[in-house]
Amino acid sequence: MSPCARSAVSQRLQGLDHGMDTHNRSAVEEFALQGFSEEPGLRGLFLVLFLLLFLAALAGNTLIVTAISLYPGLHTPVYFFLTNLAVSDIVCTSTVLPKLLENLAVKGGTISYQGCLTQLFFLTWILGDRYVAVCRPPLYSTWMGRPVRALPAGSVWAVSAASTSVHTGLMTRLAFCGPSQIQRFLCEVPTLLRLSCSPTTLNDVMIVVADVYFGVVSFLLTMASYCCIVASILRTRSTSGKRRAFSTCSSHHLVVALYYSTVVYTCILPGSGSSLENGKVVAVLYTVVSPTLNPSIYSLRNKDVKVALRKVFF
């Protein structure tokens, strides 16, 4: 055989090998999700616990959305943004917890490739929208009308959706050739990137860009708004008024710090060792605990909301 013929045969064989490699690299059609425990007793305990948290989050946030929507006295900017927060919490828990409960009920739970990307899309979209509702600053309702307050809310939803679409689109370009065990109970960008056998440089760059915008910038803006609120409280002469205001804002600070710290920890989390176990706890905090606490922290303790709930439901 001539050198040219041998070269042609060699190139053809390489092309066949490349095709077979591409087929094998795309062979992963579902992922195995890691549970919290392999012991049946603990699995049952976690199942009951997360079911109660799921129901509490749905009930609390649904009450807020219903009361604010049906009671005209709450049609103000601050409650408009609290409605956004409640809706995002409902979507967040509904995206994560049903699959978690299924995997706790059935040992060895899995999620399809399409289902994993769908969960990733909605979870990333909602997490990017959380900083819309914070607290009522001074003179808030006097200058922020309906068109003005709809602009920042709509902009955040749109920007977050665009960012999530980019992350999900880049994820579909990657090949997964095994292993298919996700070291979490949900699909997240960092955990999926560790399973890919394709170059992930572009994905990593986009993660850094999104973290800077949605994490650092939004956190600084949130803290700046709280600084303005604290400065306004300090100018209040009433001691009891200061005490009530600081009590309210301290609980808000706690929730904000909990949310941002857990999200940032997840993004910079190392991929091995005991940090994987810690990562599951952290993921529970911002996908389950935070949406469950938000209704009582931001709305249900408010006397106006209590009045609205009584008038709407009783």
Automatic annotation (TrEMBL):
GO molecular function, one term: G protein-coupled receptor activity
Segments forming domain G-protein coupled receptors family 1 profile: 60-298
Principal place of residence: membrane
Stored PROSITE patterns: G_PROTEIN_RECEP_F1_2
Its membrane topology: Multi-pass membrane protein
Alphabetic keyword roster: Cell membrane, G-protein coupled receptor, Membrane, Olfaction, Receptor, Sensory transduction, Transducer, Transmembrane, Transmembrane helix
Membrane-spanning parts: 45-71, 77-98, 110-128, 212-234
Classification via Gene3D superfamilies: Rhodopsin 7-helix transmembrane proteins
Cellular-component GO terms for this entry: plasma membrane
Localization terms from the record: Cell membrane
Family statement: Belongs to the G-protein coupled receptor 1 family.
PANTHER family in the record: OLFACTORY RECEPTOR
Function (record text): Putative odorant or sperm cell receptor.
Protein name: G-protein coupled receptors family 1 profile domain-containing protein
Organism of derivation: Muntiacus muntjak
